[in-house]
Amino acid sequence: MTQPFTVDLNCDMGESFGAYQLGNDAAILPYITSANIACGFHAGDPAVMRKTVRLALQHQVVIGAHPGLPDIMGFGRREIAVSSEEAFDMVVYQIGALGGFLAAEGGTLHHVKPHGALYNMAAVSAPLAEAIAEAVYRVNPELVLYGLAGSELTKSGTKLGLQVAHEVFADRTYQLDGTLTSRRLPNALLTTSEEAARQVVRMVKEGQVCAQQGTDVAIRADTICIHGDGAHALEFARHINQTLQNEGVSLQAFTKAAQ
């Protein structure tokens, strides 16, 4: 009997702030199963956090904190040489901020997924990964830690005893070591929903992704990320959702039983 496939479809959200509108959260929410909500450092503000939490709860989408580096000008995608202690503190702070809005709205925090440069740095730096995992564990050991599949971050979370979701990306290309192609390099992004859907189906059903160098790399896909700030985010979400279901893949929020 064929083993059924189940995967979580997540999206980075709540990244508007002040007078600046980013993404189309309300339209994307019906197509995903979990939302990573910005916590005010790389994007987001208190009003946006509250509104996004309410929207996600209305759509019965599980909610995660999306802590980033303190860099609104660079959208959290520029590396900053933070110490392990600084990373610990900023992650605890941001989880607490979003947790306050969830408590006020009657919701529960499900997971934590670092954003942008903080995420990529933690994927290859064991000390930084350990600090982030420790921050999540100390706030609540029942939280799920989302991290790049097979990275230092997922290893650190597992070592601490956290539930860990290995994350893959619908709209990014990969290198031979399983890391994402830097946005500073050519062809870092997949630009059509058809390309993204083909890559996603293969990662979920075959556990493989073709690196930029043309070689297949083994990969584990517990959760798939769609970037909410992308120009075609809604199209990607809709097309990937439908393609996965057509391929017999069930969409549901990540749970410990799925590990």
From TrEMBL:
| Protein name in the entry | UPF0271 protein YcsF
Q: Provide the species name.
A: Hymenobacter qilianensis
